[in-house]
């Protein structure tokens, strides 16, 4: 029994921490986030060299061959720094190809993704919902494959992406969902950046105007995409939760320090219980989400078919509690917390960005009720 | 990360399971005699006081074995290992750590055999959360201590034979935690009056206890004079990972889900109500968080690191759940939730009404949520003490 990290994982954490402390302090985050690309290519290149971008990918394709538990370590630290980077997006695109692609497809795309020379992302949402069944982007059958017409919204890191893993449907049938890998320069594909509230999380609208996709670009047998997409959504929910945990922890540390230093009524405000108790509650929420998230990651590695319930519990808690945590962080700072200059709002915005990403609390709660009932009756 | 048991741990688990298969009385046959027989057999195996050293009659079980034993018992909803609740929980460990040889021989075997109850005389009318401010007076006269004062909320006092008691032997102290002494007192000693207090659920489980020139032999002092705080509160609060508690919570939630199938809300089964579904999921999520937090605490323990203030996390989650369970069940019952035990129309004969009136035992009894938050804020986050 060991619900802790290995020495290697602790070393990995320390390495990421050191790297980000040095290269990605918050003033750098602000600068980078306001550039048109929204992330630093230079930092990305170095992260790729260090093996973090291809962490999950098989060694024969240039990856590190590690697992979700390792990735969670990296993502927690990335979240702590509010690192603007397409890391989660590219990891998910890589996972899509590694899980659903044949060996030719893997050899075609994975080495570039692992090396960070190409960036991937998942294009699945078309509006509010995250259910695979809500996919309506049409793929009309052609001689060589499909012709895609429609639009994806909220595509993470769309401007940065070179490869889009796109969910589309060949017909109304429930089993007609497929995923295809579409390069950015495919004729008919257009990207238009969204205006994001959280500048560290750029997103975009991707238009498909009769984009031709060959059969060789479709992952898995046509129509098998629903299950794969659901798995990727679970991976995404876990990844986002890990980042949110790291960010929340940084927000708590910022506020605890402030509460120790800021004096009012001749006392550090951290002596007042109406200040210290919300901070204690944040700690409870962070540690609890962390436990749930680690377990979800472990299941994604060890027993992915059983992971959904654990993923939902983790993401539900993060979505339920962290926006509230962000609000408390701002509030406990008083006026300074409301300024653009001070960092509190960066954490609040990250938490608000994370709330609906890969399913909000209600979506996951509903799945918990269904899956927990099934699990209970299986015993 | 690895959630598997080692082969030795597995074989211990199998031993416990086999024991339970053979000896656990079925749920509807658990009368007093059957439970007593079960507890006798558990005792024979040295699974009572399993964590205690073998030389005092304990089982010498490793941390992991203790967890496995408790977990397997909890999974099957087995009766408690013994009925001497406080003796097994903290009096025994206190005597083992601070007691004299004579005290160990006198008390430990009886605790292991659950021969009689112990009760705990710590809280006073003016000293609850601020326990160290306690005032119950105590003076040494010859070879006897003479105690005068009052305790309150003393659970089981009316049935207990012995009490672990905190008194003040010195008032002129710089720090209030000094000058407190721990005594082991027979409850039928002349001068002790026990007055039961009825709680809001209508039951009398705790009591006020009055001390009027109560004489306690010096050899009944546990630890040194003036060291009572260390002997009891700090030293006995051996923090544990609290994993096994989760099974009880899981069972309660499963029962609430059953209730939601049978009760109607707006003409539909309550289990279809989105608001109630959300609350069921929230409880499920928090129970699992407790279980996994507990696993992380256990991992720390297994590495030989002591557990500290972080265990307040699960106390807070638990407090929230204990209150929520009663409230959720009553909301599911709807209009009928106002009926009490004995009324024909009352769902499950008042079970949830009982639950909804008994949470203070767990929410207040072991340190209130406010106090748990202070502990986290001060000891983990390093905020100034209030
Ligand atoms: C069912 C039950 C069984 C019990 N059994 C025993 C027993 O066997 N033996 C025994 O000795 N005691 C027992 N107790 C007593 C229990 O330990 C105390 O009730 C508890 O410590 C709280 O003390 P109090 O009741 O005096 O409340 P108080 O300490 O007066 O608290 C009142 C309120 O003030 C809050 N408060 C107090 N101090 C602070 C602070 N510093 N910051 C913020 N809020 C604060 C509390 O959170 C609470 O909400 C039992 C209690 C219950 C409910």
Fold and architecture overview:
- The complex is a heterodimer of chains A (379) and B (386).
- Chain A has 379 residues and is of the alpha+beta class.
- Chain A has 3 domains: 109 residues, Orthogonal Bundle (Butyryl-Coa Dehydrogenase, subunit A, domain 1); 104 residues, Butyryl-CoA Dehydrogenase, subunit A, domain 2 (Beta Barrel); 152 residues, Up-down Bundle (Butyryl-CoA Dehydrogenase, subunit A, domain 3), CATH 1.20.140.10.
- Chain A is built from 11 helices and 10 strands.
- In chain A, the strands form 3 sheets. A 4-stranded mixed sheet of chain A has the order 1-4-5-8, with helices on one face. In chain A, strands 2-3-7-6 form a 4-stranded antiparallel sheet, with no helix packed on it. Chain A has a two-stranded antiparallel sheet with strand order 9-10.
- Chain B has 3 domains: 77 residues, Acyl-CoA dehydrogenase/oxidase, N-terminal domain (Butyryl-Coa Dehydrogenase, subunit A, domain 1), CATH 1.10.540; 109 residues, Beta Barrel (Butyryl-CoA Dehydrogenase, subunit A, domain 2); 140 residues, Butyryl-CoA Dehydrogenase, subunit A, domain 3.
- The longest helix of chain B has 29 residues.
- The two termini of chain B are 39 Å apart.
- Chain B has a 4-stranded mixed sheet. Chain B has a 4-stranded antiparallel sheet with strand order 2-3-7-6, with no helix packed on it. Chain B has a two-stranded antiparallel sheet with strand order 9-10.
- Chain B contains 12 helices and 10 strands.
- At the A-B interface, helix 7, strand 10, helix 8, helix 9 and helix 11 of A face helix 8, helix 9 and helix 12 of B.
- Flavin-adenine dinucleotide binds next to strand 1, strand 3, helix 11 and helix 12 of chain B.
How many distinct helices of chain A? 11
Low-confidence stretches of chain A: none
Spell out the CATH superfamily of the largest domain in chain B.
Answer: Butyryl-CoA Dehydrogenase, subunit A, domain 3
Give the number of helices of chain B.
Answer: 12
Mean pLDDT of chain A: 97
**Subunit organisation of the chains:** heterodimer
Calculate the terminal CA-CA distance of chain A, rounded to whole Å. Answer: 22 Å
Order of SSEs of chain B: HHHHHEEEEEEEEHHEEHHHHH
CATH architecture of the largest domain in chain A: Up-down Bundle
User: Any idea what the radius of gyration of chain A is?
Assistant: 21 Å
Shape of chain B: globular
Give helix and strand order of chain A, one letter per element, not per position.
Answer: HHHHHHEEEEEEEEHEEHHHH
Largest β-sheet summary of chain B: 4 strands, mixed
Q: Biggest sheet of chain A, strands in spatial order?
A: 1-4-5-8
> What fraction, in percent, of the residue positions of chain B are helical?
40-55%
Main sheet of chain A?
A: 4 strands, mixed
């Amino acid at each position: 029994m060991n619900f802790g990290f290995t020495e290697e994982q602790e070393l990995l954490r320390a390495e990421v921490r050191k790297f980000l402390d040095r290269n990605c302090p918050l003033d750098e985050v602000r600068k980078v986030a306001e550039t048109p690309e929204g992330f630093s290519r230079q930092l990305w290149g170095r992260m790729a060299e260090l093996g973090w971008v291809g962490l999950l990918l098989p060694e024969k394709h240039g990856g590190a061959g590690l697992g979700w538990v390792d990735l969670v370590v990296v993502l927690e630290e990335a979240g702590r720094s509010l690192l603007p980077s397409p890391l989660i997006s590219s990891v998910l695109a890589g996972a899509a190809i590694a899980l659903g692609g044949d060996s030719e497809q893997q050899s075609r795309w994975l080495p570039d993704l692992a090396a960070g020379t190409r960036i991937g992302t998942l294009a699945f949402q078309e509006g509010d919902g995250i259910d695979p069944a809500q996919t309506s982007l049409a793929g009309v059958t052609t001689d060589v494959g499909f012709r895609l017409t429609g639009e994806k919204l909220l595509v993470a890191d769309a401007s940065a992406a070179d490869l889009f893993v796109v969910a589309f449907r060949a017909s109304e049938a429930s089993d007609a969902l497929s995923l295809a890998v579409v390069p950015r320069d495919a004729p008919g594909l257009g990207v238009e950046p969204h205006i994001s509230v959280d500048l560290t999380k750029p997103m975009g609208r991707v238009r498909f105007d009769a984009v031709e996709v060959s059969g060789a670009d479709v992952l898995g047998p046509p129509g098998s995409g629903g299950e794969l997409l659901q798995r990727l959504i679970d991976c995404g929910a876990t990844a986002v939760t890990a980042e949110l945990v790291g960010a929340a922890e940084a927000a708590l540390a910022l506020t605890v320090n402030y509460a120790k230093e800021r004096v009012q009524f001749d006392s550090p405000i951290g002596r007042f219980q109406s200040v210290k108790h919300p901070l204690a509650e944040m700690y409870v929420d962070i540690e609890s989400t962390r436990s749930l998230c680690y377990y979800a990651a472990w299941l994604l590695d060890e027993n992915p078919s059983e992971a959904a319930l654990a993923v939902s519990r983790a993401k539900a808690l993060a979505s339920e509690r962290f926006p509230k945590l962000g609000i408390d962080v701002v509030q406990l700072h008083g006026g300074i917390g409301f300024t653009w200059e001070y960092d509190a709002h960066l954490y609040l915005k990250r938490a608000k960005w994370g709330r609906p990403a890969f399913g909000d609390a209600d979506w996951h709660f509903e799945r918990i009720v269904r899956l927990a009932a099934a699990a209970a009756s299986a015993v | 990360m690895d959630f598997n048991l080692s082969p030795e741990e597995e074989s211990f688990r199998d031993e416990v399971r086999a024991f339970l298969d053979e000896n656990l009385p079925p749920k509807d046959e658990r009368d007093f005699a059957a439970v007593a027989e079960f507890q006798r057999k558990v005792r024979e195996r040295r699974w009572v006081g399993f964590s205690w050293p073998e030389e005092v009659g304990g089982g010498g079980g490793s941390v992991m074995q203790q967890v496995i034993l408790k977990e397997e018992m909890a999974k099957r909803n087995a009766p408690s290992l013994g009925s001497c609740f406080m003796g097994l929980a903290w009096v025994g460990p206190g005597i083992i750590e601070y007691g004299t040889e004579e005290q160990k021989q006198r008390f430990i075997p009886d605790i292991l055999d659950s021969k009689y109850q112990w009760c705990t005389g710590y809280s006073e009318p003016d000293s609850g959360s601020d326990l160290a401010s306690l005032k119950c007076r105590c003076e040494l006269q010859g070879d006897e201590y003479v105690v005068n004062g009052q305790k309150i909320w003393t659970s089981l006092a009316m049935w207990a034979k012995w009490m672990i008691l905190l008194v003040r032997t010195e008032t002129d102290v710089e720090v209030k935690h000094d000058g407190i002494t721990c005594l082991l007192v027979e409850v039928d000693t002349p001068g002790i009056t026990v007055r039961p207090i009825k709680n809001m659920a209508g039951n009398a489980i705790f009591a006020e206890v009055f001390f009027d020139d109560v004489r306690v032999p010096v050899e009944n002092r546990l630890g040194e004079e003036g060291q009572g705080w260390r002997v009891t509160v700090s030293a006995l609060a051996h923090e544990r990972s609290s994993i096994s508690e989760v099974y009880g919570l899981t069972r309660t939630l499963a029962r609430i889900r059953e209730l939601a199938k049978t009760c109607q809300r707006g003409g539909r089964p309550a289990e279809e109500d989105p608001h109630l579904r959300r609350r069921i999921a929230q409880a499920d999520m928090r129970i699992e968080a407790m279980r996994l937090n507990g696993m992380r605490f256990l991992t720390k323990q297994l590495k030989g690191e002591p557990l500290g203030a972080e265990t307040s996390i699960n106390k807070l989650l638990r407090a929230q759940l204990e209150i929520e369970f009663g409230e959720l069940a009553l909301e599911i019952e709807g209009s009928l939730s106002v009926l009490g035990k004995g009324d024909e129309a009352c769902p499950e004969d008042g079970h949830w009404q009982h639950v909804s009136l008994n949470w203070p035992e767990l929410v207040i009894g072991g340190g209130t949520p406010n106090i748990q938050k202070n502990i986290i804020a001060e000891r983990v986050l390093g905020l100034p003490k209030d």
